[in-house]
Design goal:
With 212 residues, this protein is of the alpha/beta class. The protein contains eleven helices and nine strands. Helix 2 packs across helix 3 and helix 2 crosses helix 11. The structure holds 3-phosphoglyceric acid (3PG).
Length: 212
Amino acid sequence: MSGKTENLLTVLNLQPVVPVLVVDDAASAVPLARALVAGGLKAIEITLRTPAALEAIRLVANEVEGAVAGAGTILNAAQFDQAVEAGSQFIVSPGTTRELLDVAAQSPVPLLPGAATASEAMALREQGYKVLKFFPAEQAGGAAYLKALSSPLAGTLFCPTGGISLANAKDYLSLPNVVCVGGSWVAPKELVMREDWAGITKLAAEAATLKN
Ligand code: 3PG
């Protein structure tokens, strides 16, 4: 197993649930990340879907003790480089392109590439990837689909994301090929807007006790 894969697994094994954040205001990123870390969720994926995202990654990486800042929704090489420059310690993409594989190959920062089918997972195995994001998990077939891949694609691990909540997270976490799940439910927009950081710590703590 490569050092990069080991590093990625170390991050993903920190907790059963990786929060997937869409940060509208960079000023909320630090208290939000602190609230998640206080609840036991250290690895935090900040998606590049808002103009505030890169600044949010920078702030979390520099100012939140105990947090491991990662970037999500990385679609191309330029975003990959920007996210690394901002301090991301892991990079997540919803799918996979040649461009992303090429930039990732040149970087010390690990990529968790997206796959939703057996063929996509097989193509990534050929490139040496052992840990993949299964996206969009619920819509692509859910835990039953992922379970069906576990025997033929033995040795490949997944972090399913998309449509996962406290209600169905265990269905995934009980599978042998799941390392953790990702989800936005631990940081609901209403709580962020109300600056209800204690409420977010409570949701994070609940998620952190799920078993992986
Ligand atoms: C995403 O990229 O949006 C993540 O998969 C989060 O999905 P969720 O909002 O359904 O948890």
